[in-house]
Amino acid sequence: MARNPYIVLGLSPKATDAEIRSAFRQLAKKYHPDRNPDDKKSEDKFKEVSAAFDILGDSERRKKYDRGEIDDDGRERPNPFHQWTQRDGAGGGRGYSSGAGGPGGGPGAGASFDDISDIFSDIFGARQARAHSAQQGRGRDTRYRLEVDFLDAVNGAKKRVTMPDGKTLDLTIPAGFEDGQTLRLKGQGERGPGGAGDVYVEVKVKPHALFDRKGDDIYIETPITLKEAVLGGKITAPTIAGDVSVNVPKNSSSGTVLRLKGRGAPKKSGGAGDQYVKLKIVLPEGGDKELEEFVKKWKGADLKARRDFAGA
Asked: Where is the composition biased (Basic and acidic residues) (predicted)?
């Protein structure tokens, strides 16, 4: 028979949500099966702690428990004031059924196995999955969140991470990995009589100071001087694989976009996307006396683009 969940977690009924989460975190780590292999008592204690948190970790279920609407197992108690509806019984007799499924809560009552969100949020946003595996007796799957650098996601990388239960896992980030995609590590989840569950790692890609990704293409903005814009020439531009030489055509305006074929992110089907370099003319910081004198004397050509813009 289940014990009072407050007693299981070592708390009083006045405990805050933060205190409940903290107590569960400490006890779950202490009694986790991976830290106590082949220890039946620790395994039972871990299940008891998890069941207690299933009730107290959910604000609505905790309120129901405090009001006496559910018992220590999380099952609904019979409610004498519940509205009962009349129905026909077998053989023409009369029977009654409750909207709550009758005493004991009916099918589906009992402990909830919804996600315990962010229970290990202090360790790269990990989330402990609470859903039972469809395979009976199989250990529970575990879900985590992991942040990786932009270039590691685009170019691929190997990462060694330590999970909340102390287990170390080696992750391979495939080249071209996108923000929000999930890695699956088969058989690395919680162990059970029918085998181990899986680990799912949702990858969050950090933004980059220079590169912006859209699908398989990479975009950057590159500053050029007025001289380079007028006369053209070669400049060095960064790509996800390193710096490359780029030819700037003569008379390039700000906003001109140059395409670097095959310099984008790797594609799943093979090959790679492109990189697009947007030129931005930048004048000398603090001004340039020689340039100012030249512009004052320069008659310049009529700017047709602005006349069209103004509707002339």
From this structure: 31-47, 60-79
